[in-house]
Amino acid sequence: MRTQHEFLAGALAALVAIGAQAGVCVKSGERVAFLGDSITQYGNGPCGYVNLVMKGLETVGVKADKIPAGIGGNKSNDMLARLDNDVLRYKPQWMTFSCGVNDVWHEFILGKGKGVSLPDYKKNVCAIFDKCDAAGVKVIVLTATMIGEHEDDEKNVALAPYNDFLRAEAVKRGYPLADLNKAEREGLAKLRAQDPVDRFRYTLEGVHMIFPGDCMMAWGVLRAMGVPEEKKADIERVWFKMPNAYPMGIALSSGQYAVAKAKAEASGRSVEDFVRYAAVANCERKDKPLAGNPEDKIEFPDAKIVSFPVSQDEKTKIDGQANAARLPWDRYIRGAVLAAEPTHDFHDWAVKPPMGWNSFDAYGSVVNEDEIRRNADWQAEHLLKHGYEYCVVDIRWTVQNETNTDYNEKDPVYTLDKWGRYLPAPNRFPSSANGKGFKPLADYVHSKGLKFGIHIMRGVPKEAVRRKCPVKGAPGVTCDKIGNNKTESWWLKDNCTVVKGRLGAQEYYDSIMELYAAWGVDFIKCDDIAVPYMKGEVELIRAAIDKCGRPIVLSLSPGETPLEEAGHAAGHANMWRMVGDLWDKWDAVEHLTDVASEWLKKPQVSGAWPDCDMIPLGRLAVRGYEGTKSYATERNSRLTRDEARYLMTLMAICRSPLMIGSDLPSLAKDPETLALLTDPLILGANQNASNPACRRLTKEECVIMSEAANGGRYMAFFNRTAEWRKVSFLGHDVDLPPHGAALRLW
Q1: How many CB atoms lie within 10 A of CB 567?
Q2: DSSP secondary structure code for residue 364 in this structure
Q3: Cys-Cys crosslink for 614: which of 295, 393, 661, 739, Cβ 3.0 to 4.6 Å?
């Protein structure tokens, strides 16, 4: 169906919610053909993706029949040649189409001319689709999965235009699309962020799927069929219990189960996931002996059977390690479970874009304790219920004689402890006196139901270097031994770079994170670290937070973070700045539009968010400055009403963290801005959508779309001109769900 929507975009931005088609498109009694190559042929194995799709449909109440039509080595010309015999003669209602890997791969492994060129591929695919349309067979398009699991491999570079064609053709014809290539890339990015070891995760040898890869493919197909996201956990539980899904079952005594359950809860895992983690991780730690006393006999009257899925590769690894340890595999696993330490993935600390308030835009570097408490009070009463939970003290809270016209670098009086660690200036933060640090203020913020955050500059204080303060945890090492000033900040000279690899470098960062954890810090904005991108210190800080025993969200600042460091940033931080300081100027908002559109091309990892910077709406520069004295005057945001709406829409649809920068009590006299900051629909697009993507970017307009939790879409239209514009689009042009109803949110 070609559904046309039109919107007047004279107000610079329009946000639209588009509902999903209700229900699963495949109905009970219908037949589904699976046309493809060896990936689909093997996918018809006991736990291959074809049978996982059928089991998933059955789990949601759809009893359909399959027509397997995968043949190894097939290219698009082969599939066209056998379409009538292998698919159409069975009169299916649906056909999934997976093709492209061999069209490209054979050109590399068999020689020139053995693959299928892109023009010929397009002709073959269009002919297949035309024949299906004529026969009344509805097609579900599957993009080709990766060749080798590395996005920059030359074979995947060559494969990209084939998949681009499939995406475009699916949109053009109104076919459901399962973008498996994108799902695989995003899944690999998340897995590598958690575990950087270079190894295959989804495939046996880079192409053919093992169980996790089949699960990834099957879920992508089911989502394209309309199975809702909330059914995923139920379906996966069924998959993991299927025969030949490489499940391994062990019996635990009640005491052993209690140990496993406690460790699983401490690491945020289910018992089944923790057992799998322990068994596989122990194979990587040959230097760590198995602990505990796993009994030889497992027939306990109170035994609990724990089954957990592993890939064939992992099963082989576990069997080999058990044999090497001369233990039965079940005893080996019990010992590994009892020995394993629970782990945390820092991405779990920010599964949605963080929201809160930061003091900088209103108070610059001179904020004091009274101002933090007043803003926290207002935040807790009026904003916390909307999700704004972090209260963050920004830059130079340690300087006792700071000025509000520029950073005082002439004669700053720092507050340090004997270990060379910054403490709050007691004249500005009275509750910190007598070595209490920020703990009393953090306790106050926590008492309001909020979370407490602070700003830090990367590196070691120059004052600590001058004094030769000892490094806590590194006997005999002083602060002058761990850093240099060759790569110090060009805009603030407080600190020296800490050089990774020097004796005492990690210990220094460990010591400051230990201190912040003792204070009750929940959020750290680390400055002068994203541009230039200081990879060594990012890694030191990540390691230190992971050791401190407290979940602390890490933000890297300022921008522009280099795009090429996206993977490293996502693997070490929860958020990082896309741009420099964002102030209330229209040209800065326009620049943000361009930069954010580029970041949307990168796979998004849950718990790792590209950051647009603070929201410069409301009362600004109450006692702060903007880095240029001519802008230091206290003011309401200079963005117009329409410009403010544009900015808020952009931040929300991109799923940027939302940190308000203005004086919060002043919002009581600015109901329009308050309403904009707390609109439940725009916050829903920010907090509950997924996979934002820029679908159109020109000098005149920008269109960004994301997926709603209910299977629908959010679409944001940005008018970048000074004139009223009519924005018109066809539903299939931007991959909208069929029969979706459009609701303009503003």
Answers
A1: 17
A2: T
A3: 661
